[in-house]
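Suppose you are handed a protein chain with no further information: no name, no annotation, nothing but its sequence. What can you learn? This example shows the usual starting point.
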Amino acid sequence: MPAATSRRETSARVVVVLAGGLSHERDVSLRSGRRVADALRTAGIEVSVHDVDADLIAALTEAGPDLVWPLLHGASGEDGSVRDVLELLGLPYLGTGPRSSRVAWSKPIAKTVAARAGLSTPDFVTLPQSLFRELGAGRVLAALLRRFALPLVVKPSHGGSALGVTLVQDPADLPRAMVDAFAYGDTALIEQAVVGRELAVSVITDAAGPRALPAVEIVTDGPYDYDARYNPGRTEYFAPARLTASEAAAVAEVAVTAHRALGLRHISRTDLILDGDGVPQFLEVNVAPGMTETSLLPQAAVAGGHDLPTLYRDLVEVALADLSA
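A reasonable first move is to predict its three-dimensional structure. Written in structure tokens, the prediction is:
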């Protein structure tokens, strides 16, 4: 990657955190950005937080940071486009590159890559809204119900924070679930629901390469939806997850395998379900994990004995070393 447009000769690190954007997950991104910026400042790093707006390119050019940390969730933040712009500007950044971000951003493609890497993932199909209309909604839904047993999970093929995601247990609820998914994207992923323990396994990179943090187990009073994720009280987290040593090793291996197979860099989070047979079922991966007070990666880091300011500072150093190699 080209050198940044301006570099400081002092030893102090200067980082620009990107947060906000225009996606449905803007509020979560802003909260993530504030939390990471505060932690980096505690670790002695000079930090500014900037939104993705018409002033961004000028601000980045003027700041000439040592590193940019994109904490943008949803479209543009995770689909590789902002990372493409950072590369055009010659600015080093923490996280996955644009091409691999686009692969991970597409849930169907990520599941296909994971399956080819030997991971188990629930059976699924994808349906674009245009085809759904052209062939007739009723006929397509009938075909789905003949092909898959209930329950099903219907979700947008892109996106995060469980926006537009529905667990369908009654055939009468399937049409509404499709409408909800299409509200957040042109293509829906319909996936066989898996019964088991819901887990999130974050991966960070240190000098030895990518490694998994302790799994976090998620127990909710209903669907693990947007409200349950970001508003305390509805969800109970177990960090580390209540797993045997062999189960913990198995889910860690899944997360690291997905990270490598998808070409991810520095940081990621894999969501999976450990089914009744003890098999980890890969669901999706996130290249810009949430960093809010209820987010899973910070919980995993603390469970692993990490001090968050120190960990985030170390990630900055690893990213700089990696990008200058």
